[in-house]
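Incident review: delayed structure delivery

Summary: a single-chain prediction request sat in the queue longer than the usual turnaround. Root cause was a stuck worker, restarted by the on-call engineer. No data loss occurred. The affected request and its eventual output are reproduced below so the record is complete for anyone auditing the incident later.

Affected input:
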Amino acid sequence: MPNNIKVLVIDDEESMREGCRQTLADEGYRVQTAVNGNQGLEMARREAFDLIILDLRMPGIDGMAVLAELKEYDPDAVVVVITGFANIETAVEAMRRGAYDFLPKPFTPETLAAIALRAADRRKLAIENVCLRRELDDLTQSVGIVGQASAMKNVAEVVRKVAPSDSTVLICGETGVGKELIARAMHTHSHRRDKPFVVVDCGALVETLFESELFGHVKGAFTGATETKHGKFELANGGTIFLDEVANVGPNIQGKLLRVIQERQIVKVGSSQIVEVDVRIIAATNKDLQEEMKQGRFKEDLFYRLSVIPIHIPPLRQRREDIPLLAEHFLKKYCARRKKEIGGISAEALRALEGHDWPGNVRELENAIERAVVMADGDVIEPCDLLYYGLALAAPSDPAPGGRLAEVERLEIIRALKQFEGHKSKAAEYLGINRKTLREKIRRYAIDDADPANSEKGNRE
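Output delivered after worker restart:
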């Protein structure tokens, strides 16, 4: 039986209108009716319907004109036209103008129910087909949280308890700690697992386009709006929407987000039509929202709505016992992806991994292991495979700044600076570290990055 599928019946004949309403209501649809085309258009502009049953012959504005305007307003509208004056020309014209199907009067309740079910499925597919869902590598498996630190065990326990609910969750933690992974884990273990998981990168969207991205827009809403667009909330309907770096959202959109959370309704840019959405909201931030509120940059009401269930993920440097497990996990992942057979990570390389502060957290560790898999020639990851990441320095057996591995690292930094003519951002990207880490190493080794050739000479002397 259909659940929460909204149908609008537009017919001037009361017996037909009420007959359709009763038949569809008995099948579980949520049905509203309109007595003429003008009323039907007004209702369709005000509220989104999954299916519209439309009589072609009505006084005033006729069904063909109503059909054309409905499709102009919402190209994905699923419209089934009915008429007592059936002929092939009328059917062809209605289909040409965008009708989903054609139903001649008289028809049985069973025929109406069957065509309504097919049309409702068509609407569902239309929405799902425009949803850009990123797939997990292990889509057919559960999403796991790798880690043995007590803090991560607590996170895993919270996820286990919260995932089956629809409670709004706020995930806090530094960049790269795995906030999206936690959000995906909650979605995967929820009753919404078969519905979309839609990610919104709040830090990457231009403020002027943010509202359109979240809520969609109608054709002609602004310059460049050449067609009606579904927003992220509509695409996530029935599933989960993940608002990554939500602290970057401006005050205007914060207010609209608050209303969506409270009312579960959106309005497209340029429209007055209310669209109901059934979504689970998970937000994440790398900022201190308490401080953002004090500074007046984040609305208190929105904070309390988002943080019904708060989850804090500690940085990797505070849970170093997880590094071996994570490294092994990523090693297996990238060996399989690169079709390489590497048996493990040497004790010396593991000490280097455990000694690094990982400013980029789990994401940086994953990148390091992926690159080590690519660089490794043997069947075990060695410190030399990690040199491009400056990790060998951290090995206790080779204290800096005088050990052999440290010297190799110093020379690699000098070569990178020479290659990129002292451009630190490019050199850091090449070495696989962030710019701040590179600056610290330049200072540690007393490298004159303005003239790395002189530095190399000076250090040799």
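Verification: Confidence is low (pLDDT under 50) at residues 132-143, 392-404, 452-461.
Action items: add queue-age alerting; document worker restart procedure.
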